[in-house]
Amino acid sequence: GSRHQWAQDSDVERKTMKRPAGSTANGAKRFCASFGGSKFEILQREIIARSEADEWDPAKKEWTLAHIYREEGSNPGTCLCTHHPILEICTLENDNTGHEAVVGNCCVKKFMADIPSDTIFSAVRRVRHDAGKSLNEPALKFAHERGWISDW
């Protein structure tokens, strides 16, 4: 099927994976609600490994949101924490090290509370289902900051 995204294919390495049998869209909601210590510890370890800092608090401050996109159900991604499948994907960049990290929307919220990824994804879903709808302010700001839209 077609894939809707907010990043160019060359920007992010993609892996082709199949959705596990019995997996549903509600599975992501259950994962976010039950985000356990072990997955968070994996996320922390992987972020620190790609950072200059060697402790969590300073390491997480090195990262910024570069891209967000949604994968279709037939081509879900895998989060840095190892959670699979993820459909709402955030690509993070570390300006200090040049590293990129692909994480799910749930994980990005766990350590980048100031990023309105939920609000942006909500706007994209709304417009995708009804082209007559408009994006919300956080989605417009995100797009404007990246030069995808201009001041007219």
Residues in helix, %: 25-40%
Rg from alpha-carbon coordinates: 16 Å
Q: In sequence order, what are the helices and strands, one letter per element?
A: HHHEEEHHH
Q: Give the DSSP E fraction (strand runs of 2 or more residues).
A: 5-15%
Main β-sheet description: 3 strands, antiparallel
For the termini, the CA-CA separation is: 33 Å
Uncertain stretches: 1-31
**Biggest sheet strand line-up:** 1-2-3
Strand tally, please?
3
Number of helices: 6
Explain what this protein looks like in three dimensions.
The protein is of the alpha+beta class and 152 residues long. The chain has helices at 25-33, 37-49, 56-60, 105-111, 117-129, 137-145, and strands at residues 63-70, 88-94, 100-104. It has a 3-stranded antiparallel sheet. Mean pLDDT is 76; it is low at 1-31.
Task: Spell out the key features of this protein.
single chain; 152 residues; alpha+beta; three-stranded antiparallel sheet; 37% helix; disordered N terminus
Q: What's this, in brief?
A:
This protein has 152 residues and is α+β, with helices and mostly antiparallel strands.
What are the SSEs and their pairings?
Layout: H1 25-33, H2 37-49, H3 56-60, E1 63-70, E2 88-94, E3 100-104, H4 105-111, H5 117-129, H6 137-145
Antiparallel strand pairs: 1-2, 2-3
